[in-house]
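FORM 12-B: Structure-to-Sequence Request
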C-alpha cells in the first residue's frame, strides 16, 4: 500500500527524518579516532542503571542587577550495582560558582575548594575506599562536569551548587539565561593523544527529537528595584505572578518538565525603559569592593557613515544541519540583502574546510547580493567544524582601502578551540570589529560572547527563526552609530585598585558602563566617566560619599574575582607554565570559586561499598532543540545495529558529506519507486515552531496511513488544526469533503495528538496538506 512520508518546506528536515545521525568521521581503529560524542544505546540488561540523573532544578533570586542561583541535581540508583555517575552540564558564561554540598539521606557534606589535581586525587582516593563522593570540575567557563561515586542501589543523592552572576541590560532589556544542555562538540583531536581534561567531549547523546531522560524545573523571584514594564519568557511556557510593581515570581509550567533541551531565557524591561545605574559598595572583613554601573548617553544617528566592509563567516557544518542553518540563511539574507551600495562584502563558508564567495570583497550591488544569497541557500550542513582555519583565512584577506572592516560570524559554537580562537582575535584587534551570532536553542555562549569580548564587538544569540530580522536590524543600528567611543574612567578622592576591566572598548550597544574594583578607607570623592558621543565630548560624574556600604551583598567579591578570571582566560591561551595559571588558581582558592584550576570535592566519611569499584556510567544528554543527528559522530543506522552499550564507527572514507549525498540519492530512488502520500507544506501560527510541529506529524504519520488504507482514498486533503495553549488539539477542520469513513478515522486519530505548548499561552493554528498520488 502507499506510504505516507512527511516533506516540509525545509527540505533538509526530510533527510534528517530518513537518515539521521550522519556526523564527523571516526576511524574503526582507536588510535585514529577523534574526540567525538556518540549516540546512547539503552541496554535491556537489568544490571547497571544507565540513567542515574532523575531531576535537575534551579532556584533563581534576582535582586537588582545580581542573580543568585541554586542548582540541585538529584541522582538515584534504580539498578543492582553501585554506580559512578558522570554528568556534563552548562552554566552561564558569567557564573561565579562559589559553593557545593552533597546530601545523602540525613547526612550533609559541604564541599571544599582545592587545586584541580588535588581535588581529583581526593575524589579518586574516596572512590578506591568505597566512600560516596562528588567532584565538580570546570571543563570550560560554561561547561562543568559532575562525578558522583558509589551511588549504591536504592540511594538517592542530591548535589547542590551555588553561583551568582551580574545582569547587564542591552538596549535597555535585561536578560537572564539558564543554559540547560551542552551541545555536542566537534574536535579533530585524536582520542588517544588528547589530554584527560578534554575527554568530556566523548559523551553519549540521545537522538534528535528524543526528550531528556531527566526532568527539569525552575522557579525565579525578581526584585527589580524599579517598576517592571514588560516580562516575558520566549523559550518556555511559564506561570507569572506579581506581588508589587517591582516584584515578580516566575515558575516553569509543569508541562515543561522535559524542557531541559534548550536554554531558559527570561527578558524584562523596567518602567520608562530605565536601567539600574549607580554605585554599590560592599564592606568585607579584609577587602572592600565596589560595582559601578553608569548609563551611557543617548544614541545619536550620524549623518555621514564611512565606508564599511563586511566579511560574513558562516558555519555550514553537520551540527548546523536543519533548524540552525535555516536561521543562518534567514539572517544572512537579511543582512546582505540590505547592505548599502557604498558597502563592500564577502562570504566565507566553513565546515571541515572553507570556501570564499570571492578572493576579494565585492561591491554590494544587486548582482553580487543575489550571487551571495544563492550560495548560502544551497547549503545543507555536513562535515566538521573547523572554525579556527576559517577565521585565519578571513583575517588574511586583503583589506579594501578606505573601508572600516567588520567580521560577522554565524555559528552554534560547537567546537573545542575557544582559547586558540580568542588568542587569534586578540592578536588581530586592530584589523576589524568582531560580531558573533550564536545560532540555535543551546549555543556555546562561551565562544560567542568571548569572540565579541576580545574582538571589541557585540554578541547576539538567536534561538528562534522569527528573531533573525530584529537581531539583524539591531546589528545594523549598532555598527552604524556607536554610543560612546574613547571611554575613560577617572577617580577623584576615591582610593581604588584592582579595577576590572582595565580598559573599556567602544560602546556599540545601549548598555551601561560596568566597572568592578576594590577600594581602601572611607568611601569619598567622585567617579567620572568621559568619552566621545555622536554629539561630541561626553562627561558624567557620580558622588561616592552619599552611597552607604553594605554587608549583605557578598556576591560582589565573587563577581569581581570571576570577571578577573574571565579576562585572563579569554585574552590568552593558558599553559601550565604560564604565570596566569598560578594567578587564576590563587583567585579560585582565595575566593572559593570554581575555575579551570580549582575544583569542589565532597567526601562522605563512611565506607559504603566494600565489594569493589562501581560501574561508571555517563549520563546521556538530549540534543539541543532543533539540532539534528548530523551533529553527532555516528550514524543512527549503524549505531542501532551495534551491540547495546557499544559505540559504532564510520570508516575514514565515509565522511558526513559522502553519506549525505549517498542517502539523498537513495531517498530519491525509493521515492520514485512508490506512490506516496506527501506533506508538501506545513503552516503554523507565530506562537508555534514549525520544526517541532513537523516532528509530531512525522511521529504520527503511520496512523494517518492506516486511515487512507481503510478509506482507499485518492486526492488532496487540507487539514486545519486549532491548538490549545497546552498543545492539545481543540478542533480538526477539513477544507474539502473526503469520504466520511476517512474523515472520521483522521479526526479520531488527530484529536489524540499532543503538540508542544504555545510560546505565548494563547491558542495556535496548524495547516497541512495530505496528498495521495
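FORM 12-B RESPONSE
SEQUENCE OUT:
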Amino acid at each position: 500500500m502507499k506510504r505516507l512520508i512527511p516533506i516540509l518546506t525545509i527540505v533538509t528536515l526530510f533527510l534528517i527524518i530518513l537518515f539521521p545521525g550522519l556526523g564527523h568521521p571516526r576511524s574503526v581503529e582507536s588510535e585514529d579516532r577523534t574526540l567525538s560524542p556518540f549516540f546512547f544505546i539503552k541496554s535491556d540488561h537489568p544490571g547497571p542503571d544507565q540513567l542515574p540523573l532523575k531531576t535537575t532544578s534551579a532556584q533563581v533570586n534576582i535582586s537588582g542587577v545580581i542573580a543568585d542561583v541554586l542548582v540541585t541535581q538529584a541522582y538515584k540508583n534504580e539498578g543492582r550495582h553501585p554506580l559512578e555517575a558522570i554528568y556534563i552540564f552548562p552554566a552561564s558564561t558569567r557564573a561565579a560558582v562559589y559553593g557545593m554540598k552533597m546530601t545523602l539521606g540525613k547526612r550533609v557534606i559541604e564541599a571544599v575548594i582545592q587545586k584541580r589535581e588535588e581535588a581529583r586525587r581526593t575524589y579518586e582516593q574516596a572512590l578506591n575506599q568505597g566512600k560516596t563522593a562528588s567532584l565538580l570540575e570546570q571543563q570550560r567557563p560554561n561547561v562543568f562536569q559532575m562525578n558522583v561515586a558509589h551511588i549504591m542501589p536504592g540511594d538517592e543523592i542530591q548535589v547542590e551548587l551555588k553561583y551568582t552572576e551580574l545582569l547587564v541590560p542591552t538596549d535597555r532589556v535585561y536578560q537572564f539565561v539558564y543554559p540547560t544542555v551542552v551541545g555536542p562538540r566537534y574536535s579533530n583531536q585524536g582520542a588517544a593523544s588528547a589530554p584527560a581534561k578534554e575527554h568530556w567531549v566523548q559523551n553519549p547523546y540521545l537522538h534528535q527529537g528524543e526528550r531528556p531522560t531527566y526532568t527539569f524545573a525552575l522557579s525565579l523571584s525578581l526584585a527589580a528595584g524599579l517598576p517592571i514594564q514588560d516580562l516575558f519568557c520566549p523559550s518556555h511556557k511559564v506561570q507569572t505572578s506579581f506581588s508589587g510593581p517591582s516584584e515578580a515570581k516566575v515558575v516553569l509550567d509543569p508541562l515543561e518538565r522535559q524542557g531541559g533541551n534548550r536554554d531558559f531565557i527570561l527578558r524584562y524591561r523596567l518602567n520608562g525603559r530605565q536601567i539600574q545605574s549607580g554605585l554599590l559598595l560592599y564592606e568585607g572583613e579584609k577587602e572592600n569592593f565596589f560595582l559601578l554601573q553608569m548609563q551611557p548617553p543617548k544614541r545619536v544617528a550620524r549623518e555621514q557613515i564611512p565606508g564599511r566592509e563586511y566579511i560574513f563567516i558562516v558555519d555550514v557544518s553537520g551540527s548546523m544541519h536543519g533548524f540552525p542553518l535555516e536561521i543562518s540563511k534567514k539572517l544572512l539574507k537579511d543582512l546582505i540583502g540590505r547592505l548599502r551600495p557604498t558597502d563592500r562584502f564577502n562570504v566565507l563558508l566553513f565546515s571541515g574546510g572553507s570556501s570564499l564567495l570571492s578572493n576579494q570583497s565585492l561591491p554590494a550591488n544587486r548582482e553580487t547580493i543575489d550571487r551571495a544569497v544563492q550560495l548560502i541557500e544551497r547549503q545543507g550542513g555536513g562535515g566538521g567544524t573547523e572554525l579556527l582555519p576559517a577565521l585565519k583565512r578571513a583575517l588574511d584577506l586583503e583589506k579594501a582601502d578606505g573601508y572600516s572592516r567588520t567580521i560577522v560570524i554565524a555559528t552554534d559554537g560547537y567546537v573545542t578551540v575557544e582559547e586558540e580562537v580568542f588568542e587569534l582575535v586578540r592578536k588581530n584587534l586592530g584589523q576589524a570589529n568582531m560580531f558573533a551570532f550564536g545560532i540555535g536553542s543551546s549555543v556555546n555562549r562561551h565562544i560567542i560572547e568571548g569572540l565579541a569580548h576580545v574582538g571589541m564587538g557585540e554578541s547576539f544569540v538567536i534561538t528562534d527563526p522569527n528573531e533573525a530580522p530584529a537581531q539583524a536590524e539591531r546589528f545594523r543600528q549598532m555598527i552604524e552609530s556607536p554610543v560612546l567611543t574613547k571611554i575613560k574612567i577617572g577617580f577623584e578622592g576615591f582610593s581604588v585598585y584592582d579595577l576590572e576591566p582595565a580598559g573599556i572598548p567602544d560602546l556599540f550597544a545601549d548598555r551601561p558602563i560596568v566597572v568592578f574594583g576594590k577600594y581602601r578607607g572611607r568611601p569619598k570623592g567622585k567617579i567620572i566617566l568621559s568619552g566621545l558621543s555622536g554629539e561630541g565630548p561626553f562627561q558624567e560624574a557620580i558622588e561616592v560619599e552619599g552611597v552607604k556600604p553594605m554587608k549583605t551583598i557578598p556576591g560582589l567579591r565573587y563577581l569581581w574575582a570571576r570577571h578577573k578570571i574571565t579576562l585572563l582566560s579569554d585574552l590568552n591561551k593558558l599553559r601550565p607554565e604560564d604565570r596566569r595559571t598560578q594567578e587564576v588558581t590563587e583567585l579560585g582558592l582565595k575566593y572559593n570559586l570554581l575555575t579551570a584550576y580549582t575544583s569542589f570535592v565532597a567526601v562522605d566519611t563512611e565506607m559504603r561499598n566494600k565489594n569493589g569499584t562501581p560501574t561508571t556510567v555517563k549520563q546521556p544528554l538530549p540534543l539541543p532543540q532543533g539540532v539534528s543527528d548530523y551533529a553527532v559522530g555516528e550514524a543512527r543506522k549503524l549505531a542501532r545495529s551495534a551491540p547495546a552499550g557499544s559505540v559504532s564507527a564510520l570508516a575514514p572514507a565515509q565522511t558526513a558529506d559522502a553519506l549525505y549525498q549517498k542517502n539523498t540519492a537513495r531517498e530519491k530512488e525509493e521515492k520514485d519507486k512508490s506512490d506516496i502520500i506527501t506533506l508538501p507544506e506545513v503552516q503554523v501560527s507565530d506562537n508555534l515552531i514549525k520544526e517541532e510541529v513537523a516532528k509530531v506529524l512525522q511521529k504520527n504519520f503511520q496512523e494517518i496511513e492506516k486511515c487512507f488504507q481503510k478509506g482507499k482514498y485518492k486526492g488532496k486533503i487540507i487539514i486545519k488544526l486549532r491548538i490549545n495553549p497546552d498543545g492539545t488539539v481543540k478542533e480538526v477542520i477539513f477544507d474539502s469533503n473526503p469520504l466520511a469513513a476517512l474523515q472520521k478515522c483522521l479526526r479520531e486519530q488527530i484529536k489524540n495528538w499532543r503538540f508542544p505548548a504555545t510560546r505565548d499561552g494563547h491558542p495556535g493554528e496548524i495547516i497541512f496538506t495530505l496528498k495521495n498520488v
